[in-house]
Write a structure and sequence with these properties.
mainly alpha, Lysozyme, 2 domains, two-stranded antiparallel sheet, 12 helices, about 5% strand, amidase activity
């Protein structure tokens, strides 16, 4: 088999080229880096196999023979990882692209819902709200300064104002009739449907509207995995609020995944059901304002990351990455593109 210069384990110049590609953010650099990682993993596998084979002295057991054997194994690993390889490189590329907010073709998408930890939308797992879970029973996230660096400080609008992302006046609310089924096919459709209601609730709560959009997206998988009645009718429960004894409205039963004693268990639970998207956002705002557990979260008006961290600290969800996932969506390319498009519509 003929070898190209990049197929040789002794070609160290390839790393300089890879570094240059990475500096220019060339998508091909990601694929090459993944291939090299796959090659290293195969080398370790071959090394372990050699060590587990007693009496392997085909090369005389000399130091020179061992050196040649190691080089042979390294080159073999390079060849095995070329072409389609064993699949590890492709898996790494997909995972890394998702973490960077890129799709399969390199297009910008919001993928914070696609990690392995998010196989189930939060509306079907990890419930802490509406069931009287004591706030002190939930471990608080660390007040990491990186959140401030990544997502910015308190909104310049000040206390009691919201970051409506330059959209003024607010978008017109869509009628319930046009959303009776509410089956958004894309994140853009989901954002278009919920944004006007998110803005209204955000003004009431004093937090950025994009955070409410992001939380609803996280809870429902951009509306594709929302809680539904047995007949398929939408419950419009966009924030995964359970129906406890204090709730006298409509309810919907569904199977959910709960963390009990550090283990995820599947169980049936009752959730609140609404007649529209507007009712869902209105009840969410009331739920937060009337629950002392979320008082601290609402004190950070105008600050997106402190509000999200406050929800997690109060036990809104048991996912330890809940706040970070909200922030990744809120300031990710999907939400930002939708907000930019709405600006153009209002212009």
């Amino acid at each position: 088999m003929a070898l190209s210069p990049l197929d040789s384990v002794t070609d160290f110049g390839q790393f300089a080229g890879l570094k240059a590609q990475a500096r220019e953010q060339d998508p091909a650099a990601l694929q090459k880096a993944a291939r090299q990682f796959e090659s290293l993993m195969l080398q370790q596998m071959l090394k372990a196999m050699r060590a587990a084979t007693p009496g392997d002295d085909a090369l005389g057991g000399s130091e020179q023979g061992s050196f040649y054997r190691d080089m042979f194994d390294q080159q073999l690993a390079v060849q095995l990882s070329s072409g389609k390889g064993v699949g590890l490189a492709d898996m790494l590329v997909r995972q890394l692209r998702m973490s960077q907010g890129l799709g399969e073709g390199g297009s910008a998408v919001d993928t914070s819902l696609s990690s392995g930890a998010s196989i189930f939308p939060l509306s079907l797992r990890e419930r802490g709200r509406g069931e009287g879970l004591p706030a002190e029973g939930v471990e608080a996230p660390s007040e990491n300064a990186s959140l401030t660096r990544a997502y910015g400080a308190t909104s310049p609008q000040g206390r009691g104002k919201t970051d409506i992302d330059g959209i003024n006046p607010p978008l017109a609310l869509k009628t319930d009739e046009t959303l009776s089924e509410f089956r958004p096919k894309t994140p853009q459709e989901f954002i278009d449907a919920v944004l006007p209601h998110a803005e209204k609730a955000a003004r009431e709560l004093g937090i950025p509207a994009r955070v409410l959009v992001a939380q609803a997206a996280l809870e429902t998988g951009w509306g594709k995995h929302q809680i539904r009645h047995a007949d398929g009718k939408a419950s419009f429960n966009l924030f995964g609020i359970k129906a406890d004894k204090s709730w006298d409205g409509d309810r919907v039963r569904t199977m959910t995944h709960e963390y009990e004693g550090g283990r995820m268990e599947r169980q049936e639970a009752k959730f609140r059901s609404y007649g529209s998207i507007a009712e869902s956002f209105e009840d969410y705002a009331r739920f937060l304002k009337s629950n002392p557990r979320y008082e601290q979260a609402l004190r950070h008006q105008g600050s997106a990351h402190q509000f999200a961290a406050g929800l997690q600290k109060a036990g809104y969800a048991t996912d330890p990455s809940y706040a970070q996932k909200i922030m990744r969506i809120a300031y990710g390319p999907t939400v930002q593109a939708a907000l930019n498009q709405n600006r153009q519509v209002m212009a």
